[in-house]
Structures are given as C-alpha cells and as structure tokens.
Amino acid sequence: MRLAYIIALTACFIAAACINSTITDENYALTFDYLQKYGYLSKDVDAVSAQRRNDVFRKAFKDFQNYYDLPGDGTPNNETLQFMSKPRCGFRDILKHETKASLSKWPKTHLTWHFHLADETELNTARAAFDLWSQHSALTFERSETSNADIIISWRRLLHYNTNTKVNGAFCSDKFDGPGNVLAHASLPTDQAGFVSEVHVDGDEPWHIYVNKHPADKFSLHYTLTHEIGHSLGLVHNKRKTSVMFAIQPDQQYPVKLDQNDIADIQRLYGEKIQNDPPRRTPAPPPPSPDLCSLDRVNGILISENRR
Where does Zn(2+) 1 bind (predicted)? Predict the structure, then answer.
C-alpha cells in the first residue's frame, strides 16, 4: 500500500505539471487529504472557488515545506513528495486555534498506564519508554493490570475501536491505513472528567518489539511508544530532527533518547525530577568507659597526678 501511495501521488503531480500549472481536485486529491489531515489545510477549503482553492493549496504546500525545512516555493517537487510518503505519527503538525487554547497537562505527576493484551516483552518495552520521561521530569508512572488507567496502549488496525469506550467513544476518529505511512497516534490530555489518553499502535506494521537495536526492515516499538507517550503527556510535534517528538520516523531509531528540547518541554509542564537526599546517618555514640571493678583482669594502670 505504501509503494502504491508513492507511485500514485508522484504520478498525479507529474501529470499535473505536464498538462498545466493549475491544481485540480482530481490530480491533487491525495495531497489535499494529507495536508488536511496534518493541519496545513482547513476542512472547509472545498467550499471556496477553484482559483482560491489553488492558491490555498500552494500556500499549504509551502507551509509544509517550511515546517520540515524542505526546498521549494509551494510547487510540487520530488523531494517533498518522497518526504510525504515517509512513515510517521498520525498526530497533526499544525493544531487548530481552539485546540491550542484548550491544551492542558495532567493535573498530577503520578500516572498509571496499561498495555492492553501485551506480552512480557511488550510490557518491558513500554516500561522503558515511560522511564525515559520519568528520568527527566517530576513524573512517575505505575503499571495497571486493568484498563482502569490514565494512559492505555493497544494494538489496532484500520478502522478501530477505543479501549475506553465509556469516556472516548466507541470508534477512534483516525483510522489506520495498513502497512506504511501512519504508524501510531495518541491523544493529548484534556480537563475532561475521567479522561483517558489512548495510544494506538498500527498492528499491520512490521515491529521490532525489543529495546535493543532494530533491523532495517522493522520499526522500533520503543521509539514509537516514547514518541506517542509524549503526546499523552501533553507534548506536540517538534520540528527538530533530533527530537523524539519529530513527526517523521527516522531511519535509525536507536538508541532511543530525549534531546534537550524534549527535556525542556516536559519539565516546563511537570517540573524537574525530584532528587531525594540520601538519609543522613547519625554517628554512633562512643562506647562507655569500662567499670574497673567489673574487670577480671587489668594489664596496667596509668596514674597522672594533677592532670585533668
């Protein structure tokens, strides 16, 4: 599916470039969907005139190029198209104004998590991902054996359910697309009562579920969970390629670590890690002077006259 997506997307742009410079819905449908999904185009762009829609599209395409520091002036080019086909997180790059205004962090620093139907290896990998965030902030995490948790991780495919249907509704609003492109997504914390942040990982992808170095033909679950947990804690995408919150999955995802931006961002929300001072040891009192009358044996006595 991923290869077909790249071929179709490239063919659309080549065809459009050869015919004329006008952007049409038919030729640019896939790219429109991509730019809308990640926040560069609003959902109501279809209501404007064709010429206005072309102008809006070019601006959105240019904004995408600027966001990822890609060369271009808003006109499609191979480098941008290839970049758009890279595996990535399904969370938006550009948030709506109302979303920005309502962003919040968890009102507590001790959070529970649950990995639905995970085996021991997957649990260890999730634990390692949470540890990266707790090592650099005041956050602490505890695994829950039930779904009664603050953060729930689960494997999902295509159109999929939420785990916590009572709070989050039955269906997830973002379906997966099969192998390639979107690898996972997560929800930011809100002030909704009983809110649960869900991390959904696409089960159709080839995953390396261990914390060691991943082979070239698989994605690191450790890296992906670290990124998605960042969203669950309140972090959005970061433009820096060294950041674990960079939206595009890097080719090399090992070792997994937070860069200085990630550390500064998580500490801005929850504070620095609390360092507990080691307990002070009270020195033991000196042994009492012996009672000479109770001794069985005396080897010698020193008498010092007029000395105190």
Answer: 160, 185, 200
1 is in an annotated binding site: no
169: left (phi over 0), alpha (psi -120 to 50) or beta: left
Residue 42 is classified by DSSP as -
H helix runs in the chain, sequence order: 2-19, 25-37, 50-67, 78-84, 97-102, 120-134, 165-168, 221-233, 260-270
- CB 117: neighbour CB atoms within 10 A? 9
User: Domain coordinates of the chain in residue numbers?
Assistant: 25-85, 110-270
E strand segments, 121-242: 140-143, 151-156, 182-186, 197-202, 207-208, 219-220
Q: Which amino acid is at 42?
A: S
What is the number of other CB atoms lying within 10 angstroms of the CB of residue 91? Answer: 24
CATH number of 110-270: 3.40.390.10
Contacts of 188 (CB under 8 A, 6+ apart): 103, 197, 231, 232, 234, 236
Query: Is 136 one of the annotated binding-site residues?
Result: no
* 150 labeled binding residue: yes
DSSP at 171: B
230 phi and psi, to 5 degrees? -55, -45
C-alpha dihedral sign at 45, 51, 52, 54: positive
Out of 120, 145, 228, 305, which one is annotated catalytic? 228
Q: What does the buried/exposed string (b/e) look like for 124-145 if buried means 16 or more CB atoms within 10 Å of the residue's CB?
A: ebbebbbebbbebbebebeeee
pLDDT in tens, 142-174: 999 999 999 999 999 999 988 877 767 788 888
59-104 pLDDT, tens digit each: 999 999 999 999 999 988 889 989 999 999 999 999 875 455 446 7
Among the listed residues 276, 200, 264, 267, the one whose alpha carbon sits nearest the alpha carbon of residue 232: 200
